[in-house]
Amino acid sequence: MLAWHAWLIAALLLLLLELLSLGFFALALGLAALVAMSAALLGLGATVQWFVFALAAGLLAPGLKWLFRRYAPSRRTSFLAGEGQRQEGEITQLETGEYRLRFEGDLFMVRSASNAPLIVGARVKICRFDGITAIID
């Protein structure tokens, strides 16, 4: 097995590991392994390949974190963490006839705490979430 094969395998494993949501750390290491693979393809020695990997990982890990926070900041608050302060959503109806609550661009199953009828287009206050179901007033 050539060195670049090992770097490619390591990169693929790390990129697959990123699917477990490790917060871009495995992604940075996977990309760094691809950079090290490039060094191996250029015929550089093992010491240089490890140095390139370490340097790339050191630059990519904080860089990716910074890019993610800058261009994809989370605006969602967590009701479970007590951060929700009387937020509102809009009742919509699917083609199947089921009702959903549109909240921050996502659709959630919805249930009224008081068994009041759901009115399409109405803005309602969210009491809490029960799993993935929004409970409204």
TrEMBL record:
Keywords: Membrane, Transmembrane, Transmembrane helix
Domain of life assignment: Bacteria
Membrane spanning residue stretches: 48-68
Name the record gives this protein: NfeD-like C-terminal domain-containing protein
Organism per entry: Oceanisphaera profunda
